Amino acid sequence: MPHSESAERSDERRMNSATASAHPSPSSHVSHERPIVFVVDDDISVRESLESLIRLAGWQPQTFGSAQEFLSRPRVFVPSCLVLDISLPDLDGLELQKRIAPVRTDMPIIFITGRPDVSMTVRAMKAGAVEFLIKPYGDEVLLGAIQQAIESSHVALRREAGLRSIRSSYASLTPRERQVMASVVRGLLNKQIGADLGISEITVKAHRAQVMRKMKADSVPDLVNMAARLNPPLESQTGRGSLDEL
Length: 246
Fold this sequence. Notes:
- The two termini are 32 Å apart.
- The radius of gyration is 25 Å and the shape is elongated.
- β1, α2 and β2 form a beta-alpha-beta unit.
- 52% of the residues lie in helices and 10% in strands.
- The chain has a five-stranded parallel sheet with strand order 2-1-3-4-5, sandwiched between helices.
- The chain folds into two domains: 85 residues, Winged helix-like DNA-binding domain superfamily/Winged helix DNA-binding domain (Arc Repressor Mutant, subunit A); 130 residues, Rossmann fold.
- The protein is built from ten helices and five strands, in the order αβαβαβαβαβααααα.
- By secondary structure, the chain is α/β, with parallel strands linked by helices.
């Protein structure tokens, strides 16, 4: 084996050892507490009524009198949904939705209002609201909407946890392993990868085995699917050169 390959393998063994304990499992970030139903409404009587209803249904209620008060709360990785009054004193419900919907896909929004407006309803639903309820509404109607929203939140959190796991595994790869992974995803054979990277076929096989182990991939198609979920997609990255961190 050429000296450069031997030195590279030695460096990567040290890096593998160092990264083995540096990336905690993403599942550790997901709480197993009861689902939370957030309520944002400036009417204290509505907040108190919904708090009792939600608690009786078995969920955790957390109520806020304003959008700003809600925004100041740190994010938790618990299945959740937001019951949101569309008319608020500082930041209205539609504006709050605009701020949080793109970054909180795991928290479906249910709008409630005492003053129905078709244009507001259309805007809210186009922006991703799962329900738009007009006061007065029946308790069962709201509870049904909350149940569906919580189920959607469960799915979104599992999907997000899976993506974090893939990113964590990818971060544990050495630069050479990332190059080999990119080439494998592109469909190159070991011999072609070796020629492209200037290393022996035996060394390619060793790197490839490390990639499969670290990425927890059962097969090449499995690895391709993982690569497709990375951002930017791995397929667009070339074999030569250092691959950037995601």
